[in-house]
Amino acid sequence: MFEKINSLLAEISSFSAKGNEELELFRLKFLSKKGLIPELFEEFRNIPGADKKEIGQKLNILKQAAQEKYNILKTGIHTADYSFSAEDLTRPAFPWMLGSRHPISIIRNEIIDIFTRIGFTVSEGPEIEDDNHVFTKLNFAPEHPARDMQDTFYISKISPEDSNPGDILLRTHTSSVQVRVMENQKPPIRTISPGRVFRNEAISARAHCIFHQVEGLYIDENVSFADLRQTLFYYAREMFGKDTKIRLRPSYFPFTEPSAEMDISCSICGGKGCNVCKFTGWLEVLGCGMVHPAVLEASNIDSHKYTGFAFGMGIERPAMLKYQVNDLRLYFENDIRFLEQFRTAF
Ligand code: DAH
User: Could you tell me the residue range of the domain that residue 110 belongs to?
Assistant: First the structure.
């Protein structure tokens, strides 16, 4: 009886069915009431006591093997009926890797979220721009050093010597979107413009030829410097924590008057002094000011009726502060080992 069981086991394990008919024959042969296995169980009753235990175990194994084979083939054949060659649709799916957002996108979304909560819209403009929108209409003097080939990537320069409003270039700041918005909308205007900007810099841990900025613009009647200050204070506290202090230092930009730069109390040491803030307790985060009347007029906005403020900030800087990643190049290499570490809800 042992040999018989063993040979049936071998037959079962090598069996495969091409269709439902063959599988039904298998069931009839082995498992049905009149099949070989119930027959063997019948025979088993007459086995002498000494061998009974061992043969009983073996028979159970055989019965189980036949039943399992039948079950497996039944599901397999079910899928094999389809014309494509998926082998077993009941198998668990391949484990997909879940993606994560780029740290720059996370910070950009956070900035957008902070400003849209107080009524700012989001606007975008082209990365390939003309001199008019990047410089001239923003009140840059013809000889301003930012127009220099060493700072600006020109795509086509009409006159190699002089700046020309028709020169085509990669925008060096998102302030160009201010101009496009002013050209196309009437005040009140309240918008932020996130985007990529390009400058002709040697790549190092602290500088890159591509980086990201968010521009802000608010134009209406009676907009004052106090509105600017309070808006930026709100931003700083939302972005860097509610105990953040700000300070505004006088500065110069051609497109704002007066102009200022904003520092926040160091988010690493809380203002006590550390090597991130170079022991000053303060970190520079953005430039801002009241929109220069010449800039309003260049886009046909009546500077006697309307005033406005503008600000511009880099996105890499808050990302570096938030994530303590101090080499800019990591943000541009897209190494999965780096990116995987930024799984968040944003
Ligand atoms: N465009 C400036 C830059 O790239 C940043 C800036 C400063 C934008 C002052 C502004 C502003 O709107 O008012 O450095």
Answer: 103-126+174-342
